[in-house]
Amino acid sequence: MSSVMQTISILGLGLALTATVGCQRSEPVQWQPSSQVTGLAEKLGESLEPAAVAELQKTVSTVVKEHSGTFLKPKMLSEAPPDFKRELELKLGQEVYTKRCVQCHGVNGDGNGPVAGSLYPRPRDYTKGIFKFTSTPYGGKPRRQDLMATLNRGVVGTSMPNFRLLPKKELEAVVDYVLVLAQRGELEMQLANEAESSEELDPEFIPEFVTDVGTRWKEAQASLTQPLTPEPELTLERVAAGREAFLSKGCSKCHGDDGRGHTKDNIGKDSWGHATRAADLTSGMLHGGQEPVDIYRRIMNGINGTPMPGFKSALESEPETIWNLVAYVIDVSNRRRQKVKIPAGLMKPYNEPAPAAANAEAAAE
Description:
Blueprint (H helix, E strand, L loop, with lengths): L2 H19 L13 H4 L1 H4 L6 H19 L15 H17 L1 H4 L38 H10 L14 H31 L7 H15 L15 H13 L3 H4 L12 E2 L5 E2 L15 H10 L10 H4 L3 H15 L22 H9 L1
Helix pairs in contact: 4-8, 5-8, 7-8, 8-9, 10-14, 12-14
């Protein structure tokens, strides 16, 4: 068959398919109830009638819609109802999110985008209201500047790129939209928790959940963690003192004596239910930022949603120790860049093998 005939045949097949299938509009994108809300049917199925469970689910969805809007008309729970200008800003944020973020983070912002299953670590789930890299105390919400910083630098060593080349207007708008998703998801989670534990949602107490979510997000802007003392010159003497603190204050328990994170205590679960481990500091990939003040805040505040604790209560009486640790972490994280060889012998296995003698005794019994 000639190329002309092949082309005619392909065009004919395309026209036939078009005539058969027709021009169909795809279903409009919508926010979907979380798995926690849909799961109420199974969790409460033995104690409540299906109609009662369905009513609880409907109430959750109605309250969430009232305070967070819909996909077609989003609004931020912690703000007054949006005027026309604000609606346009949120829609711009949604457009940027749909183009740049939804593939990984999903329509709801729950970290279940189409490609999420093939990524490690998995994309962030915003709907719990938890963000790892903040400048606020442990357990606090991030400031807007924290989210902007993440967009500008990305999260090195993960699939999260930086977006520093986007116009600032788009970055600001997409941060707003992420906040909409986070606040919406957190309210939905709290209401679902209450429905599951109490087997009802008392209308009298629903405003308290809404206020609680909104207040904590508003308070974050004024909750910046400031260093206890001014940043000093990070000298080699401080690096040496920082290593001593690293080994004596509990850091090496998870990060290892060499900072590589190869210890038996270095496996845990994060708040999203995923396996996690302490960072290999020698990789140079400090996800929360490379600046001394960024590292200072990681040490002081810990990392939200992970087993990494904050050391504020342990070290606030010796503030210079915090800066010493900062100096040591910076030194360790730069060793590979400086082509310093790190002996493999310092590495420890994740799981300690059973002693050979114990195995021999067991075999003899």
